[in-house]
Amino acid sequence: MAQDEETMDVDDQQPPEEENETDEQREQRALKLKAEGNKKYSAKNYREAIDLYTQAIDTFPQAAFYGNRAAALIQSYKFKEALEDCLSAVKLDPNFRKAYIRGTKCYTQLGQLDDALKFAQTGLDKFPNDKDIKQGYDRIGIIKNKLNRIEEKLTVVSKKYSSLFEGILNPKPTPSEDTPTEEGVKDDDNDEDMKDQDEKEKDYDLPKLNHRLSKEDEKEVDIAISMINSLLSNDVSQSVEMKCINIKALIIKQNYDGALSQATNVLRWNKNNSEVTKLRAIALFRNGSTDSAIKHLQQILRKDPDNKDVKVLFKTFKSIGRAKEAGNKAFKSNDLDEAIVKYTECLKLDPTNLKFNSVLYSNRAAIFLKKKKWQLAYDDATIAVDMDPAYIKAYGRRIQSLYGLERYDEAVGDAEKALRLDPSSNDLKQQLRQAKIELKKSKQKNYYKILGVEKDATEKEIKKGFRKMAMKWHPDKFASEGEEEQKKAEEKFKEIGEAYEVLKDPKMKQRYDAGVDPENLKGGMPGFGMGGGVDISHIFDLLGGMGGGGGMGGHPGFQHFSSGGHGGGHGGHGHGGQNFTFRFG
Questions:
Q1: pTM of the model
Q2: In sequence order, what are the beta bridge partners of 528?
Q3: For residues 169-183, b (16+ Cβ closer than 10 Å) or e, as one string?
Q4: How many angstroms separate the CA atoms of 556 and 48, rounded?
Q5: 443 CB-near residues (< 8 Å, 6+ apart)
Q6: Mind listing the pLDDT tens digit for each residue in 325-377?
Q7: Type and span of the H or E element at 317
Q8: Closest C-alpha among 432, 426, 362 to residue 397
């Protein structure tokens, strides 16, 4: 045990020759260490150079040793440690010129520009004609000027779109009655546009919102980002404040992935920086990660419960989520008009939140599909796809609206795009197959359109549509018309009967809906003649059956027609003088 203690004492002791050194000897040894450090520095082996300069400082502290270590630390991008050495050098020797040059650079790289100016000015007071110190001083002025330009460009654009929630964090004073609001300002150029606007769209009060930056505004932000990158690469590489400005610029540009990446990198070395954490929360919220965004804000509030901006953002994120849920609730309860109102109100809360608003537009499109407002559904689904090109559900809703608009080629194109996003999805494969079927059917007879009913019409609606269209085009109603009109009416009448014959039969309707060519449905089916065309007498039977049979001619509300036996009734066609009745209604 005694031997161990003795060994430890020996380890802690300095070599006897160093213990008995004079100051002059220590200085000479330190100078040798410095000289060795200089060789390593020249060879760009900065880590070993730093170690040797440190040994020199520990042996015999001198301003030059601190200055040399500062130079090696600067080359290693350790500006904070280098600045400490510059300050130590000046403390040892206020006239050590190189310390002012290097210290000014360190302050600048750290983004402490006011301190950099003061330090450079102190150096200039001692060395008024020193070009290197003057150059550092002047560079600070250039950087400050660039920062002002960056701030100006970003602020103008950000306030315009409330990109950083300026409208909530710094709300404008409520305007007086005499002050025109944005909604109240008349724009004569837009009056005609409003008059031409589709009436159905007006009824739903769907405001046109700016969700993306204009080309001019995006250009301004791009210029600012280019200036920021230049400064970070050359002058203020270690400035957390400059990196925050960069994150803000990316959020304003709506590059939320880029903003998240930058914020994550900064937080690795600045874990407790509340400003970076707040900006990352905004980027997360705008990128669709609401829960994670709220957790970031809670993290700040645990350490700083009185942070006003963060408290406001926390409430805002929560309220926007509740607004969306109000729309979802109305939709689920089938209160469609209320759901439209709620989703529309929610869209105004955070216009530049692309992923969130993409969902809102897609949800509103689903409502318009249920209401068979095909153009409005298409418009909303298109905005949703534009905001989030990877949002598969929005493609599905646009495809459905394209069916309603009878733009089947485009529907197939959308189905192909959606499948490319997830090639393994069986649902998307089926969606593409269905789109191709609808395209094929669009080039054939549209039996639903012939009867004037929707594709999802019930049996009762199909029967009603048949009755209505058959009455409209019954050949006897055109008995007094010319031969061409009579022929047209008879063809229409046959076509109506053909459509009804297919759609009233569940199996034939299913095959037709699956894309089977109508010509392949006719053979051997009741009502179709040898040539595949419908037998007109069969249509009379169908109508007669609806009215209770041929013996109901005397019932009130029915009109009697003859199906043949006169030249004008059917263009010379004879069907045995068959009598039938049907009701007008």
A1: 0.73
A2: 534
A3: eeeeeeeeeeeeeee
A4: 112
A5: none
A6: 999 999 999 999 999 999 999 999 999 999 999 999 999 999 999 999 999 99
A7: helix 308-332
A8: 362
